[in-house]
Design brief:
Elements (H helix, E strand, L loop, with lengths): L1 H4 L10 H35 L7 H26 L24 H17 L2 H40 L8
Subcellular location: Endomembrane system
Membrane topology: Multi-pass membrane protein
Pfam families: PEMT (PF04191)
Length: about 170
């Protein structure tokens, strides 16, 4: 856990355009790997070895995917423009962000990523992809989140502590 905490470094860049560009490049790479390559491989594995893919409501899946993608892009924009950093630990925000989607969830990008993964699983009718997304949520919740929150407490102190008490991880604050 200690070496994981060393990943969190505030960005040194002051150029908001460059921060936003890096954020969208990082987001694109994550999407390609975790919402494209891995689900595609799981779908191929599932259909090859189990010979079935159930047929869910693809319209609902597309709506969910677009909604969660919009949440991710808007969250990334807010993090970059107001937090003056990227969502990645190696180039993280220098200001605490508690507006926009961050007012509703402590990590709307995690919520959106898991939602996107589930939407892909529903679209393709893949139980394996849905389980993969849920496993991603569990990994984030039990391994990444504690390290991230420790870093945020160290950097932002009482401001983050108050924010943490007022805003939930998974359940939206209305």
């Amino acid at each position: 856990m200690n070496s994981f905490n060393k990943l969190f470094k505030p960005t040194k860049s002051k150029n908001k355009f460059w921060i936003l560009l890096k954020t969208y490049l990082q987001t694109s790479i994550f999407w390609i790997i975790f919402l494209g390559i891995v689900p595609f491989g799981l779908i191929q594995f599932e259909s090859e070895f189990f010979g079935f893919i159930f047929s869910p409501q693809k319209i609902i899946a597309v709506f969910l995917f677009i909604s969660f993608s919009s949440l991710a892009l808007y969250s990334a924009y807010i993090m970059s423009s107001k937090g003056e950093g990227t969502p990645l630990p190696m180039d993280c925000a220098v200001k605490l962000v508690s507006i926009g989607p961050y007012r509703i969830w402590r990590n709307p990008m995690a919520v959106s990523g898991i939602g996107q993964g589930i939407a892909i699983g529903v679209y393709y009718g893949s139980v394996f992809v849905i389980v993969y997304a849920i496993c991603g949520a569990l990994l984030w919740h039990f391994f990444v989140r504690p390290a991230e929150e420790k870093d945020l407490l160290n950097r932002f102190g009482k401001s983050y502590e108050s924010y943490q008490k007022a805003t939930k991880n998974w359940i939206p604050r209305i």
